[in-house]
Amino acid sequence: MVSTSGKATLTRHRHDFRLPIFDFRLKQICILDHKSRIEYQQFHRHAPMSRPSATDPDNSNGKRQKRGVPEGLWIQCDGCKATVYRKQIQQSLYCCPECNHHFYVPAKARIAQLLDEESFEEWFTNLLPKDPLGFVDKKPYKDRLKEEQKKTGLTDACVIGKGYMRGRPLVLGLTDSAFIMGSMGSVVGEKLTRGIEQATELKLPLVIVSGSGGGARMHEGILSLMQMGKVSAALGRFHDAGGLFISVLTNPTMGGVAASFASLGDITLAEPKALVGFAGPRVVAATVKQELPEGFQTSEFLLKMGFVDRIVDRQHMRTEIARIIDYCGA
Ligand SMILES: [Zn+2]
Hints:
Blueprint: E1 19-23, E2 28-32, H1 34-46, E3 74-76, E4 83-85, H2 86-91, H3 107-114, E5 121-122, H4 141-152, E6 158-165, E7 168-175, H5 186-202, E8 206-212, H6 221-240, E9 245-253, H7 255-258, E10 267-270, H8 281-288, H9 299-304, E11 310-311, H10 314-328
Helix pairs in contact: 5-6
Bound molecules: zinc ion (ZN).
C-alpha cells in the first residue's frame, strides 16, 4: 500500500503525484502515491482516537494507547526498505511481499509452517533453566531468564518434539533467536540430546531448524560449552544407527551452534541470505586484517563453498524436507 523508492527526495515536478511524507515512527521520509497518501492520512486520523479493546491482550491493563501508529503495525523491510503491514508479512510466512526478504519467525509459527496442523507433540517441557554460576552481567541471569520467558512465552531457547510433515512422522527441534539470541545453554543442549536419542529409538528422521545468533550461552560458562560435544555425540550415535538428520540454517546461525549440531546434517538446507558462521564478519575482519570476500558468511557464500547443500525459500521448505525424507526412505 505504501511504497518507498529508496532514498527519498523532496524535489518533485509539477505533475508528479508521488508525494513525500515524513513518517514519525520510522523517522524517515516515505514517498507515497496519491491513493496511498489518502489512506495513510485516514489511518493516522483514526488510529490515535481508537480506544484499546478490553479483549486485546496487549491492552489488558486498560491503559490508553499511545498516540500515532500502534506499535509494530507497520514495519520496514530490511531487504527493500518498503513499509509493509505486519499482518501482511505474517500471512506470507514472515516474508516481505515486495522482495521476499525472510524475517525472523517465532518458534510456534515455524512449527505451524512446517508441520501438519496440530500434529506437534512437545517433549521435555519440564526442563527449566537454572543459574548455577550466579552469573551477573547487566542484570542477574536469573532475572534475565524470567524476562525472556515472559517476552517469548518459551521456557528456554529450544523447542523439540514429534510431529507430522505431510503425513510423515519426524522429530522436529528448533532454536528461537528471540530467547537470549537462541544461545545454547544446558537446557537447549539437554533437550536436543534427549530429542536425538528419542529419534534414534523411534527410528524417525530428525529435522533441526537453527536460529541462534548467540552460540554457546556465556551465562552458564563451561556448562554451555560442553553441550556442543554432548549434542554432537548424540548425533554421532544417531548417524551410526542409520538415522537421517536434516539441518536447516536460518538467520542467524552462529558460534557454538554453527560449530556443533547445525553443521552436522546429512543434508544441510539454508534460508536465503541467512547469516551463518562462527564469529561475526567484523570480528573476523579485525582478526585476519584482510578484506572479506563479498557476501561472506551468507547462505549463498556457503553454498558456493560446499558447506550448504541447497538454499530453499521458506515457501518451499516443507515440501523440500518432505521430499528429502521420501528420497532417503527414512
Ligand atoms: Zn522487502
